[in-house]
């Protein structure tokens, strides 16, 4: 019963009313029993970024499934269509050995999100570096032929679905790389406001007329100003910048407004902010950056937007930690605390 399934899922997924009937049927089969089990254990269903622990659990689940079935690679398991000669055998093994169940074992998230994460982790077409001019031309040609069929285009280009979709978004926007004009900033601010209002009104579920909605004042928490905004849609409304530029510019605007235009990370205040940042991250004792409560860190540093603090941490890491790419998150924090912090305190 679709209504019953939707009602039961709503306990775990608040936005379930916006999910299609077909997806509800799949979630009722793949997720509902798991969610109930997690509830008995006192574990809440999670969304957002995957933690280091969850990524390791996905790797473990994949390795165990390969051992059970004898399939010789994660790529064959997760990208079966790339191997037409083995497709029928692999699909039969996946059905016989309950692939959906095994992949999601121990991870309190919707199966679909776990599957997409696994595909991203094990896709040999990921992380291939910058697009050449020839590749960009091919991408434009393939999109004209196949529309937004990113699965088909990714196969033709040997790049991941996400990579080709995001790169096309950047190309299509006819992005301007110079300083932002007043008109562009106004378009950006209007686009962000529109998306925030849309989100608030959907959550409120109020029945105000569209005229009242367009003029009323709204009260929102700070995180709503920068968290999980649909940047691809916002970039489309701006028209002259791609999504990453829009996100960075909005973070700058937000930071200037929240700090009343003060120049941060300069002089004594800058040193103190870096010291506070390192100390707070060290005190958290987390093993993975995805487990960091960046909102809490931003308060410790100086009541700044979360993306701004994340960007400053990245800059600190890259400029101060030798061979940081080969270190774990906790090793990076330990290095900053033991080596960089005394130096900063001495300068202060």
Automatic annotation (TrEMBL):
GO biological process, one term: termination of RNA polymerase I transcription
Molecular function GO terms recorded: chromatin binding
Pfam families documented for this protein: Myb_DNA-bind_6 (PF13921)
Domain Myb-like: 123-171, 172-254
GO cellular component terms, semicolon-separated: nucleolus
Gene3D superfamilies, sorted: Homeodomain-like
The protein's name: TTF1 factor
Annotated organism of origin: Alca torda
Name of encoding gene: Ttf1
């Amino acid at each position: 019963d679709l209504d019953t399934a939707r009602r039961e899922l709503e306990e775990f997924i608040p936005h379930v009313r916006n999910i299609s009937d077909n997806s509800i049927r799949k979630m009722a089969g793949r997720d509902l029993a798991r969610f109930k089990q997690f509830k008995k254990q006192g574990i809440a269903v999670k969304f957002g970024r995957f933690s280091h622990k969850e990524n390791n659990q996905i790797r473990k689940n994949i390795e165990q499934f390969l051992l059970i079935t004898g399939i010789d690679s994660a790529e064959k398991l997760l990208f079966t269509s790339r191997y037409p000669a083995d497709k029928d055998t692999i699909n039969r093994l996946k059905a016989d050995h309950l692939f959906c169940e095994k992949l999601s074992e121990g991870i309190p998230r919707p199966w679909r999100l776990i599957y997409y994460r696994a595909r991203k982790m094990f896709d040999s077409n990921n992380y291939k570096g910058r697009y050449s001019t020839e590749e960009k031309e091919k991408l434009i040609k393939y999109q004209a032929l196949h529309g937004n069929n990113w699965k088909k285009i990714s196969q033709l280009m040997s790049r991941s679905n996400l990579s080709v979709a995001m790169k096309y978004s950047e190309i299509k926007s006819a992005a301007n790389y110079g300083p932002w004009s007043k008109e562009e900033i106004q378009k950006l601010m209007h686009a962000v406001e529109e998306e925030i209002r849309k989100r608030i009104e959907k959550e409120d579920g109020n029945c105000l007329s569209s005229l009242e909605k367009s003029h009323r004042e709204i009260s929102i928490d700070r995180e709503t100003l920068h968290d999980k905004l649909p940047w691809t849609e916002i970039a489309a409304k701006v028209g002259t910048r791609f999504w990453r530029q829009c996100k960075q510019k909005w973070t700058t605007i937000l930071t200037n407004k929240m700090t009343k235009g003060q120049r941060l990370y300069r002089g004594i205040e800058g040193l103190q902010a870096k010291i506070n940042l390192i100390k707070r991250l060290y005190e958290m004792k987390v093993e993975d950056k995805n487990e960091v409560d960046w909102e809490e860190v931003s308060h410790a540093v100086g009541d700044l937007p979360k993306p701004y603090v994340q960007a400053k941490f990245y800059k600190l890491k890259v400029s101060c930690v030798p061979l940081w790419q080969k270190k774990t998150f906790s090793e990076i924090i330990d290095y900053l605390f033991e080596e960089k912090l005394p130096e900063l305190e001495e300068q202060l």
